[in-house]
Amino acid sequence: xxxxxxxxxxIRDLVRDQEVHRDVYVSEEVFQLEMEHMFPNSxxxxxxxxxxxxxxxxxGTTIGTQPxxxxxxxxxxxxxxHNRCPHKGTRITSETCGNAGKFFRxxxxxxxxxxxxxxxxxxLKKGYENTGFEQSHAxxxxxxxRHVRNxxxxxxxxxxxxxxxxxxFFGESLSSFDNMIDRSPVGQLKVAGGVLxxxxxxxxxxxxENQTDTCHPMVAHESSAGTVVEVWKKAPPGTKKPMAVEIxxxxxxxxxxxxxxxxxxxxxxxxxxGVHHSIHSDYSAVPGYFDKMKAAYGEERAKAILGENRHNTxxxxxxxxxxxxQLLRHFKPIAANKTLVESWTFQLVDAPDMLLERTLMYNRLxxxxxxxxxxxxxxxxxxxxxxxxxxxxxWVNLQRLYSPDEAGQxxxxxxxxxxWPMRHQFRAWTKFMTMGM
Amino acid sequence: MxxxxxxxxxxxxxxDQELIDFLVREARLIDQQRFDEWLDLYADDAxxxxxxxxNQTDPRLTCSLMYEDKLLLSIRVERLKGARTFSxxxxxxxxxxxxxxxxxxxxxxxxxxxTWTPMHYIETRMDEQTLYAAWATHHLSxxxxxxxxxxxxxxxxxxxxxxxxxxxxx
Lengths: 437, 170
What we know:
The complex is a heterodimer.
Chain A: H1 8-12, E1 19-21, H2 23-26, H3 28-38, E2 44-48, E3 57-63, E4 66-72, E5 78-82, E6 97-99, E7 103-105, E8 112-114, E9 119-121, E10 147-151, E11 154-158, H4 166-170, H5 175-182, E12 189-191, E13 196-200, H6 204-210, H7 217-220, H8 222-233, H9 243-248, H10 255-261, E14 263-265, E15 271-273, H11 289-297, H12 299-307, E16 313-315, E17 319-322, E18 327-335, E19 338-348, H13 353-367, H14 372-387, E20 395-397, E21 412-414, H15 420-434
Chain B: H1 16-31, H2 35-39, E1 42-51, E2 64-69, H3 70-80, E3 93-98, E4 102-107, E5 112-125, E6 128-143, E7 146-156
């Protein structure tokens, strides 16, 4: 039964000013339409170019549920290809990442492709003579994703030809990437430390929404962060506060802290928490780091860079970055009720190792499948995924601090507990779902 | 009644059997959810390490699933008792199946004994039952006539897989 395919009005009706229909989370049909329309119409994060440093290096990932490859071409540029042999559809690479050498070779029939996807050779080529092969889709090789942008190392791609160009799509929100990258004295990041993979039995949008939900930490994380605070109180006076306590304890900050920290809203579903301060504001200084930053940027600029303490920046549709600790979470949709969360960490090139150590500790303590903080969140998502099947109420409420004139506004900073970012995400969702439908 | 009493090491140098008995007892304390007694098996400067990477050598600049000192382990144990620990309502249960532990190295002069225990670990919660296969490497030493864990390293054979919640201790 189809209710939504080709029915723009029905899709628009799922999102109201202050609430959204449960089908955006539970309907498999809506999920399929997200994969067909919303993700291909958006600029979606692919990977970081430090993952493919040398010609022939590749990294396999997904845009929505479509398998794609990030690859360093022989000319040094970064390409994004559909990871599919044009012959029979076989996924070209078996490993997630590796080096293809000068060309990809399909493991099924040995068709081979240059690292920009173009067809290099086919065995028994004579068999295609006088068949009109040159005019086939297959003859053009592995299909490239046409719209690719490498923004200071972060690679995004858009599958569809329509829609917004890169600058229009992201606008001022790229300042969060800038700040994360500028924290390196040489303005460069490198993927480091390994990726944490965490399977969630819930809809991917629950994770995205949660990145700007500031009314849950002191409730849901009482079990983890609250226990940290309680256990730490029993430490003998004068004990040096461990890095782990510095990282976890701020999750228990009171409502007032989150209200005052502010949220900024940009166009197209992007936004960030922590306009004035955040849970990352009070970390101990890392010896030697500020001096390097000062030498690189001058004192004033170095202070400005490090003074930004943005908490979570959401880039619609499905990543979040944390500038002050160089971390990126990728919420990869698998099904309406299944999401793979990848948490990536970055090293600030030419900065002290202790910064990477803190990044990795944060990732392990907050984002790992073995993290007690992560357990708190996943429990809530899974309960929501089940609870939404109740017919008691078909609508999810996103009304906190709603203002009737908010829809057209952008780049505004508001009360840190507002659900405006979530409402804005759903405005973007409707826009990119129905674009060209 | 304590069904698993803590045995003293009869001499300053533990026998292989005493090492093995200790490891079996550790697993049983976890399975019986006697987490305070379990925590007491760890030295004050102990670490519990679960690598994320196959053959990982560095716990500091490579991410791990767990690399926890005794403070963090005690926070986990306290959390399991919490009234608002929602991911443990209802509680998880677990079960260890150990192969006979092997004593890989004995260094009485350094008071350091290293053991190797292949195991299957099953964690359950509600209708879900999940099986993990792992090797546990223990670094043990004798303190005041009792064996203590200095380091427990748990290498999952699928350490880099995408997992759901792993809530208890392997």
